[in-house]
Design a protein that fits this description.
The chain is α/β, with parallel strands linked by helices. It folds into three domains: 69 residues; 44 residues, no CATH class; 217 residues, 3-Layer(aba) Sandwich (Rossmann fold), CATH 3.40.50.150. The chain is built from 15 helices and seven strands. It has a seven-stranded mixed beta sheet with strand order 3-2-1-4-5-7-6, with helices on both faces. Strand 1, helix 8 and strand 2 form a beta-alpha-beta unit. The longest helix has 70 residues. The radius of gyration is 30 Å and the shape is globular.
Amino acid sequence: MLESRNPEIDVQQVMAQVRVEVQRREAAGTLPPVPPVPPVPPPSPFNILEAQVAEEIRQARQKHKVDARLPGFVHRLFREQGGVNIRLIHVAEMLVKQLAVLRAAQSDALEKLENEIAALKGETSLQRLALTRLLDELKRQHAAPDPAAVAAKASEMQSHSLDAFYLEFENRHRGSREEIRRRLSVYLPYVAEAGVGTTARPILDLGCGRGEWLELLKENGYTARGVDMNISMLSACSELGLEVVESDAIAYLRSLPVRSLGMVTGFHIIEHLPFPMLLELMSELHRVLQDGGLVVMETPNPGNIQVGSCNFYTDPTHRRPLPSALTAFLIEHAGFTNLRTLFLQPGVAPFPVGPSESPMVRCFNEHFFGAQDYSVIGTKPAMVAAGQGADHAQAGA
């Protein structure tokens, strides 16, 4: 072990060499970027109050007994006072427990209220947009409106009739915004490592939903936009100041120039698509991504039996579960390399099923309480210019 007091080591000289090397790498651009550190939220008033009460109870427990060095007659005088003291401590502890119960109830009620407000906003946004589009169509038709055109516009809005339902469904079953942001933060180091999220290498999120990923990227200084067809979801994103586009994902990708994006993400979208559309999606992703660009596709993990046999079908818009091997092959078949599969959100076993070292128990836990989601990350390799490969071959000969 090296010690700074070792006379054979000049610590100042070593540190000077380290500084010179760091400056050289910074100038050459080879120093790896440091992933951004998410801000630590301030403690809530409830947490502060609970900590203060716990400290007061701790000190009271230390002082409720009468000092043994006092004379016996003083002990007799204060004996009942000690009993009163300990009873007061017990009352304080019961109040702390009740405070925790009230806090949990208030949190649940607040989350329910937020979900109801989000659903109402979605409904209002949908109705406002429907009226606006129908009025615009009537204005274009002037005094003699075309009934077919008006009916077509009404049919278009009918296709959005489930938008508010799905927003409320997401609020109930997807998880809170804070929870989803916490889960998605696992991808921030990959963004930093790839050097994407700049104006020249923007990020596109397909099926952006409520915008948790876009919000997380924006807070960390990355350039990103989302695309979705759900009007209620897009309205929620717009209220957060996020850049979003109303469009079908594949149609939007078709409209983009070649090599115009640095990263494309899709969280819980591919399980909604038929297989031929999945193949087209992968081809479009390869076309629009720049060399070294990333694709990230996250979906429920059918390797978890509870997910694959039951939880997956809670969402009525899901088509079929996609095993991780299939998703990885789809992305590899489209031309992506350096594939990485992340298994995420492990379940929690509600009861012990046997010793953890047992192969049967490990197999059971893996298939029933393993990762509930997984993602596949792929990189678009750099294109080799025509003739460049032959030149290298001749040079090698």
